[in-house]
Amino acid sequence: MVEAHPSMTAVLFFNVQFMFIILYFHAGNAANCRQAEYKVGDECCPACPPGMHVSEHCTEFTSTLCATCEEGTFQGDHNGREQCFGCKNCDTGLGLKEKKLCKATSDALCEPLDGHFCVDPGGGGCLAAQKHRVCSPGQHISQRGTTDKDTECLHCTGGTFSDGTSTSCQNHTKYDSVELELIKPGSDSECGKPGQHTGILVVIVLVAVVAAI
After folding, report:
1. Any S-S bridges, and between which cysteines (predicted)?
2. For residues 150 and 125, is the Cβ–Cβ distance under 8 A?
3. Is-contact 58 64, C-beta < 8 A?
4. Does 27 score more than 50 pLDDT?
5. What is the pLDDT of residue 187?
6. Sign of the C-alpha dihedral, residues 4, 7, 11, 13?
7. Which of 41, 110, 123 is nearest to 76 (CA)?
């Protein structure tokens, strides 16, 4: 029986270890491609630049072929995608207008239409907006609406009025005690002698009756 020499055993063990190390690093490199690369099977292909998409993936002997994004699409990063992303539509039905046009390298950005405020911000722009609140008669505008905030309304306190379009309430006009003071919501007070408005109403009714005869 022939015994293995200690030095031969050591060499054999070293060679096996070395082979495992090589295989380990090869597998790691195949699984983790560099920043400007993407993985296809066991290959790390060169990525396409922003504004382009993959037309043909690379092989062992050829590099990646890239094509420019079509109109209405974009790609903002280095990528291994076979298609570009569709551009955002700034729909007026959602209260939006274009703030920034879509380009091959970046998506469109939307902002609220005039008289609207954003209710769904995202991606550096706005995804949906609503009309500013309209204050009712008897209220005044305490804070005008902006592109990111709604209008704020407050009720007028006693003795004041507003038609809903003012930023403050005004005092009702004061009349002599002998005169009748009529107050309508959201408007100034009106004056008249007691029974005056009743008399006018009677005259109008009589005229209408005579005209019908």
Report:
1. 45-58, 48-66, 69-84
2. no
3. yes
4. no
5. 66
6. positive
7. 123
